[in-house]
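The records we work with from here on pair a chain with its fold. Here is one such record, which you should read through line by line:
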Amino acid sequence: MSDQFLNKIFNGDCREVLKELPDNYVSACITDPPYNYEFIGHKWDDSEIQRRKERIKDSKTLVKNIPYGSGLAGGVRNDRWYKRNRENILEYEDWCFQWATELFRVCKPGGTVLVFNSTRTVAHVQVALERAGFYARDIVVYRRSSGIPKGINMQKKLEKLGHQNPEELDGWHSCLRSEWEAICVLQKPLKNNYTETLLEYGTGLFYTKMPDGGFQSNILENIKRDKNSDYNVHCTVKPLDLMNKLVDIFVPRTKGSIVIDPFAGSGTTLVAAKNYGINYIGIEVEPSYIDIIERRLLESSDLPKSLALF
């Protein structure tokens, strides 16, 4: 095993950093990359986050993560709008394919990859990773505790425009209330079957036994939110209980097991891996987040979990 990569965070573009890792090296990947709204036309770094926050600080807008000026934040739904929207999706899918190609190389056979994404574009992420060689296994539903409608309330819109009988459009909106996020589950092809893959690489299986003895569902809910420390300024921190649960289910607790997060953010995946005594590798493009990750790792402590070595 190449120990120089273990339990470290690397600053850089994961498409380049992944090239430094050996073939068939990591056992699992759990990651939360920028969604395509965040991707188009802007570098995804802290200065861009702050720019967006400032733009909506005194605004009533509910769509706070779409880059202003991207052509996706509003406007007339004409041919140009839909063309730009489609180009954005294809560009995003190609970007996912680029990092997925290197990720495929470094994953062991049977290695499981989990990628968070929006319900609107998770299919494109799955297609990109399938193009890179992965095999689609599932979509896990992370049900959040609440969701806010973000579309048009047509009754109120017509009231403002002075139309007669706007109440006839009561209940008609442009979208549903969103209260879940998609987690795309893929796997690098096995070596012949699950048994051979497990015995040679320690990968391929999911841990499905729940604390009450039941069989684990692919819907994860009733997960409490964290109260983030003042120093953790990342804008999309996932709950630690959620990441602990994903590590528990999808990361093998076998000798030599490694979990990687190519979009480490504030490091929640890495903290969860440390909680389980599992080796981790983090990659993060924004330099200011590295200190956040390292501080969180220092403050975390291993849970009383033991690796099942064989």
Observations:
- Residues 105 and 299 are 33 Å apart (CA to CA).
- The chain has ten helices and eight strands.
- The longest helix spans residues 79-106.
